[in-house]
Amino acid sequence: MMRKLISWLAFTMAFCLVLLSCVHDEIYTPSDPASKEYHSKSLWKEDEKYIKNVIKVYSEHHEEIKKGAGEPIWDYAMTMDRFDESFLMVPVAENGKVVAVLNVPRKGQKVYFTYTQVQNDMEFFQNLMSSRLKRAGTTLVDNTAGKLVCTTKTISMFYPDNESDPDGPGHWESHHVTECKSQQLESCVGEVLPDGTCLGGGGNDPGYPYPGGGGEDPQPEPEQPEDPCEKMKAQNQNQGFKDKVAALDKDEVFKEDKEKGYSAAYGTVPYESLANSSNGNVRFPEGNKYFGYMHTHLNMEGVVKIFSPYDVATFLTSCVANAKLKGNMTDAYAMVITSEGNYILKYSGDGNFAVTVGQLESWKSWYEKEYTKLIDKNLLTQSNVEKIFTQFLQEEVNINGLEVYKSEKNTGTSSKLQYNGTDNPVQSIPCPQ
User: Fold this and answer.
1) Within 13 Å of residue 119, how many CA atoms lie on the same side as its CB?
2) For 165-279, where are the alpha helices, taking DSSP H only?
3) Neighbours of 375 (CB within 10 A)
4) What whole-number distance in Å separates Cα of residue 393 and Cα of residue 395?
5) What's the pTM?
6) Phi and psi at residue 358, in whole multiples of 5°?
7) Each residue's pLDDT tens digit, 64-111
């Protein structure tokens, strides 16, 4: 009896998979991007309000947005565990084959469409649309010491050893797709090739109006940036800021085994304690109200007592981006407090920059190589630390308007640090008092 039941269940599953395959064949060949009603076939819960609104925008501007072959298969759109109408990725297929992945982030009251051809992502969606038996999982990947949180979706497919015996022995193969919240995909609006080359895009603002405008105010017209020195001077007169700096700038704090810090936010609660990641580094909080943070670097062997590449990336992609939404990018700051000196990052550019995961990896490689040289040669003095870091900002990061200042521990007065060549000390330019 049991054998008959198992055989019947196997037949039922096979029959259902055949039907599912037929449905997929119909979905793969849409002639009109707006002709099919959206029905999610994702294995995860999705922000369907955002997906439906993006479908509407795409259908209204199809000829302008479309790049290359294929059409989006909206039923497999994924919002990567984000439910704030802010992001989705969807496979683009032609004749049953995924040829690209369309990423659609929202900034303010506009959405931006970017086609990517990352092989791993295309394989993931190809398998997601397969009729094979599958199981799914989600992981939050903290690959930037808590400052760049990525969501990874995993789909595992069962492959029988013998295709004619789907219920027989076989093996599972896993495929992954990852999305990082601080990636600014709209920096290239058009096509991004597998090697990162950007094709297309351009124009004043390539975004399209989002239905209803979303939950954020439109971005204001750019204004002349305020002087970072004036911003820091006002900040140093703020008692709340001074109290938080004093709480961190202590010998006993530098001797601890976990970093400490505070985030700065718009609203009624200006400062919040930063949580720690598993490795003891502080984590920058989620949300667009946070425009700054301060934290410690400890007296531990091998710790560089100035900003890390992840600190710089967090400042640019979170602090500056959030301050820009509120209308003034010079509000943004990042501060590292160490036993050898206190340093502040400020930005006075026009906001026309992007930080990708690939760039961050390049920064990390350069940074580690140069500071390892100092450690190996027993030259890890603070003056050399400052020289390498200012060189790092100028030659490797190379973002106009990104500046580092040194804050005097006793007075709080600030001086801009500027790289002055390998054979010269770092140039220190005091802020006017």
Assistant:
1) 2
2) 228-236, 239-248, 251-254
3) 12
4) 6
5) 0.53
6) -65, -40
7) 898 888 999 999 999 988 888 989 999 999 998 999 999 998 888 888
